[in-house]
Amino acid sequence: xxxxxxxxxxxxxxxxxxxxxxxxxxxxxxxxxxxxxxxxxxxxxxxxxxxxxxxxxxxxxxxxxxxxxxxxxxxxxxxxxxxxxxxxxxxxxxxxxxxxxxxxxxxxxxxxxxxxxxxxxxxxxxxxxxxxxxxxxxxxxxxxxxxxxxxxxxxxxxxxxxxxxxxxxxxxxxxxxxxxxxxxxxxxxxxxxxxxxxxxxxxxxxxxxxxxxxxxxxxxxxxxxxxxxxxxxxxxxxxxxxxxxxxxxxxxxxxxxxxxxxxxxxxxxxxxxxxxxxxxxxxxxxxxxxxxxxxxxxxxxxxxxxxxxxxxxxxxxxxxxxxxxxxxxxxxxxxxxxxxxxxxxxxxxxxxxxxxxxxxxxxxxxxxxxxxxxxxxxxxxxxxxxxxxxxxxxxxxxxxxxxxxxxxxxxxxxxxxxxxxxxxxxxxxxxxxxxxxxxxxxxxxxxxxxxxxxxxxxxxxxxxxxxxxxxxxxxxxxxxxxxxxxxxxxxxxxxxxxxxxxxxxxxxxxxxxxxxxxxxxxxxxxxxxxxxxxxxxxxxxxxxxxxxxxxxxxxxxxxxxxxxxxxxxxxxxxxxxxxxxxxxxxxxxxxxxxxxxxxxxxxxxxxxxxxxxxxxxxxxxxxxxxxxxxxxxxxxxxxxxxxx
Length: 644
Ligand code: GAL
Known about the structure:
- By secondary structure, the protein is α/β, with parallel strands linked by helices.
- Among the domains are: about 400-590, Rossmann fold (3-Layer(aba) Sandwich), CATH 3.40.50; about 600-640, Golgi alpha-mannosidase II (Immunoglobulin-like, Sandwich), CATH 2.60.40.1180.
- Helices cover about 30% and strands about 20% of the residues.
- It has 18 helices and 25 strands.
- It has an eight-stranded parallel β-barrel, surrounded by five helices.
- α5 (about 110-130) runs parallel beside α8 (about 205-235), α13 (about 330-340) crosses α14 (about 375-390) and α16 (about 425-440) packs across α18.
- The two termini are about 20 Å apart.
- Bound molecules: beta-D-galactopyranose.
- Beta-D-galactopyranose binds near residues 313 and 364.
């Protein structure tokens, strides 16, 4: 349980650095992340490198005993580089180049840019890669922030053509797999293919989907190039990247293969403000954040990091970038810190040390105010330090009994071809996850094809494509499997299986999806009989010899079971999923602990962490030894109970 902070020495007079590092140490901070936006200072002119200031900052950090995560500065190509090579700029969907003047204005497919990145990263790692303070590297910053993965530039299109050729070999195969006989979309050669932007009506979903897959490969290659340089010249250091919340524009599992640690940037209140939740829901949790959204990402990034993960940017107070920016309730920074550690984070690092009085993020709080006096988060970290001293037992992550399979490609495809589904694919996953958490379960997220042995229950909300490896994982586990609508609904690029959905899953459960419908929010279809649940958003008409466990009044079945395999042919609210999961849990002997309102719990090592995200206080259901907090849990409070 180490604490960290993001710090920008270049924003402050050098005379202030020593005191700043001393303040960090005094607050129990051991990691400091620096350097990720400073290209224009490292290289003010082409080939003229100035790392002296960075070395002095690293020396000083080292003198204070701080470990440094050093960021490569490739999120911010400097003005002189853009002026020399405007083709580095990414193009948006209106086919307009993006402008210099903020950050992330580059195209992942630009070979010219990639070579400049190689230059700056090599120069930087040669200058400071063996510095004793540098313990870890961060590549770039937030791949994709400000909608910057997909580019429609000529450079991107040229690279996409090569990607298509490598993928399909010959143009006839691409035409067949994309279904280009439709609307005379066939190509004679790969050179004729363009981006899927600016078509009259929607472009072919197969075209869109491959454009998404191509960009995943571009991000992976861009990252890997830096990783290879860092490993060669700065051996023995971990390498990480800071991913984002609610962001699925590339397959993070693929990028994560080349990194040692996954980290992410957790802004609970900003994310809720940006979310599609109702106005009432946003008002209820405005100062605490969604009770499950952050936990979902903790579990996701633990999977992306193959077990190793950090929060590298933790919201410390109001941010500057959401539609509205309420202040967290006092106590929330401490709560979020505990929550991350209970999900097995190695480090929680706050963004940022001191609020900046200039430029875009003036309204973004820090641990210190602009006048260097402590802000609210500072005091909450002191509180956390007091709690932390009370923990002496084991805090290691234990595998959960419940797994949830998350698939980035499926998420992309269901966004591209939503068929009028009113919720984003990630929101559907969040509903399943929320229901599991409200039953008091720890949940492990597993990538498609990942090992499912040892779990009692495996939740598969939406897995459109089923590879041989994925099917093998389902067949090998003895877990109860619960599949949601749209699983197995695609083959080849994005076509409907010849034997109908759920395609290969028919090996596990004898059902065929004869037709589907999507529903506007004010239409629903209650399940008849035993279950007080209601089909919403999406329904599938199933052909089968099985008798449905739940059925709607018009005869469309909702829930099918064949042995240990369940298929739910419609969407449900989180409350209704909770009811379905609780029913299955009682049938397979899996214990539940239903939690009310915004109270959640998480088992870690010998302990349970209870957190209250509001709106009401609650009494702990747990009777073990109370190590931190009170049995009556106030809003924004934590309680830690020792059970081991
Ligand atoms: C993150 C970003 C940081 C900073 C922060 C503000 O998305 O990585 O550089 O901008 O947001 O909340």
